[in-house]
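TA notes. Do not distribute before section.
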Amino acid sequence: MRRAVDDLHSGIDKISGKLTSDINFDSFAQDVQHSAFAASQRYQQERDDGLDGIHNKIDSCTDCLPIDTIQVHKDSSWEVVYATKDKSCNEYSRESNDNRQTYDAYKFKQQYINRNIPCIIRGLDQSHFKDISTQWRTDAHENDDSNCNTKVNTDWFSKYVGNDTLVPVRIDNSNIDGDGGGLDEDGRAEECQTKYMKLSEWISQCHEQQSCVGYLKDWHLVQFLSNNTTERPTPTLPLYTLPKFFERDLLNNFLQRYSDGGDYKFCYWGPKDSRTRLHSDVLHSFSWSYNVIGKKKWVFHLPSSYNDNNSNDCTKQTFEVIQQTGEAIFVPSIWKHEVINLIETISINHNWITTANIDKTWQCLICEIQAIEIEVKAWGMSDDDFEVRENMLRGCIGLDVTMFILMIMTEMVYLLKLLFDSVEEDNDRLWDCLYSLFRLEEVLIEVIRLPNLDKRLEAMLNSEKYASEVIKFANDLITFIAKLKDAST
């Protein structure tokens, strides 16, 4: 983590002169500034409006899907191809060509990510995931209508992963239809037993459809391939590229740079009827899932509200989505869902955090901090042992307070560099940059108010000097963003 502080120090040094001066926007950019600030203030309303829209579509149209299906083109523009339009609709209808409009990545963020509502995404198998789709399928197609009966090219995995390589297969012997839906009393997903088996054994069991064969999930395949030190051949990397919709990934960018290559990037491989039980995603993150091969049924459970910040509170309203080969799904923060593989399926899944859900991740950390305090007091542990508290927090959810504040601040410095370089160049980018800075600053203010933050930082950085420096940088960033806000009102 000290390296993150050093990089933060270097980044702030480069922009320190500009942090003490005002940014002079031209008249048009001033309108963008005001718009971004106004949007940052109504983010909760945007979420509520998005959720209300889904509720209304379910109430008014029982036979149609309440979420959009979009088509992405090779230039990264996109259009809605299926949508529920209004309360009078009685079928899941295709948009006519005359009504379609194409949009950019910024519009996707505003329409789905900022409003925290799911959507189905088509066309990525012809662009960002084309190589991996071609290599992993035994019968890949060059058009959008990929055959769901396409089988897994097991030769690829044998060659590049190795038949003797151990892979993490999750075995779930519990009653998945019983009470609780696979959640413990605190609403967390119950752990499955993990069995490490040779890849060749997994392939054999998966294809033979043996009972309790399990589910190869949370597999860090890309990380494994990137770290290959054997004589085994390595495929051309990266296996896929990120769509622009998902590029600003604070979580994975930070972890890969400052935590020995850790990440939340996974491969899932399951036979027919394997499943992930009812859960919401770790850290209140967003997630996306791309079906390289196969067919999944998703069951989404709608939150009843976002206002109480209770991720365990969901309504009885549910809807199902069938995800085909070559399709991706965007999964919002705190939405509970369960997933069933209808045929043998391999998917790429990322959990990710961005400025649109950073407040939800902070709420997740606060809940875990409170739970840990109850535990350490019950054990009679010292009130001053913040290294233990941070380690417990990271062990529970994969992130501690020190990592979280550094993740926010390194992103803010990146955005400020972008802001200073693009004030008069690209108004969409300027809007997105300002919106993100305003959202991050609000959460950063909450973080620096956390009791004993200095002690947590000192414990993890092993330096009082580094801890003080982080807090000073945080206050400097907050002061500058406050000036931007004042200029936006």
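Switch to the second chain here.
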Amino acid sequence: MRRRITQSAAGALLGAGVLGSLLCAGAARAQDANTTQLPRLGISPGEPQNRSAQPTLPFGLSPAKSSSFVLDFHGYLLMPITLGINERENPAPGQGETVIHNPPLIPNNSRSFTHTGVVPTAYGQLNFTYGNSLLAATLILAAENFTDASGLYNPVEQLGARDAFLSLDLSKQLGTPLELRVGAYTGRYGVMGSYDLGRYGTPLIARTNTIGETATLALHLGPAVTLVLEEGLGGQIGKPDVGTVSSQYNGFAFTDVGATFVGHVHAGLDIAHFVQFGLHYLQAWTRDDTASTGLSPDGTIAVFGADARLTAGRAGHLYVGLGHTSLVNASTVSGAIEVLNARGGPELMIQYLGGEASNGDGALLTVGAQYDLSLSRLIYGERFLGLSPDILLSLFGMRVGITSDAPVADGTSKLKLGAEATYNILPWFGVSTRLDHVAPGASSTESFNIVTPRLLFHNGWDSQMEIALSYSHFIYGSDVVIETGSPPTRDPLTAPDADVVALAGWLWW
């Protein structure tokens, strides 16, 4: 029985994108080439980018199908405590040699290329959907910290009403799958994982943060071939005034940006839920004469992306993709568009283009891949139901080449590679080890490696929860500089923590 596109492919109109959608059908579902379900269109706003279920389980299957209005409720919680351990150089009387930091002093800024997602950070999300098979309204409440445990109350971390949108499914009326979405929501394109954003928690191509519309049309070209087309247009609700004082309590708003709009089109082709191909084009622009007191040139950020996904059943799941980002006078383009989690032109200039010396002009060429494999599924095929011991393997990597008007950044590149192995031994227990290599600069002395073993505790083979006790050891080059403070800025005087212990619990429903 066909799932309604509004729920099973919520990513499309939720802004997750055709490409991402076609590229992120769950491994378990993709084995059935004869299914009449539509390919899932990317990561929807209802699905957090953090690591959630094990690769054998798709995340967040759709709300109920009903001709009457019903209320559906889903959520996600990630609750970690993380302790960074270091040595005091010159302890004074009464001071110990060992120091403990919370949060750890490590390269963990999610908007920087050095972010790997190895050390978890707090996140909570509640999704409320009210509607029927024709029309549904969704409100998502979220937070990046939990107030009672916060040493410093930061309103910016209390995201509040993060997304609010209406979904209209006209498939029955038109005889072909067509969904319209209107409202405020995110769109995440370039989904490296089979069910989430992948090991780095970063869209490979781009993310949109806008209020507007998206329309998604699916055309069945044959019994096993589906073409999906999508277009979208959106902007943001307001912008910082020129006189706004940038501070912690407004997320250190970039006061020079103008009103920014994003238009995007996508096309994806799914063949037998086995191979999926996608193309994306996004363009963000500002034409605001009040930005930077009207003295700055109009800015644009254009992104072209292409990717492919192989969902090969017992042979595993493979994703490869690339994105090309072109920036022109980008200092006035706001966070309506994100590339590699960097918000708009100002953060892309800081993180990649060499700062103000680039004048907001440059380009990024991003390539990435991830391969996930279940050894039990490889050996036993369809006889393996995910209810017995299994070893899960994952290989992943990303590289960014930079062209910039700033000589310090022009011609440089950034690279990160990783591997992870998980052994689910018992219904309630498993172990894993992850290895990461990050090279954010031309010199090897700027690189670092991370070794992370974990103990995993579940409530069953098909668990929707996990408690993980992990230890991460960082091996730093001599010139590694971390970011500290708020907003995070490079701090060459602070020695990074070499060891981090984390106890994290997550649950999704």
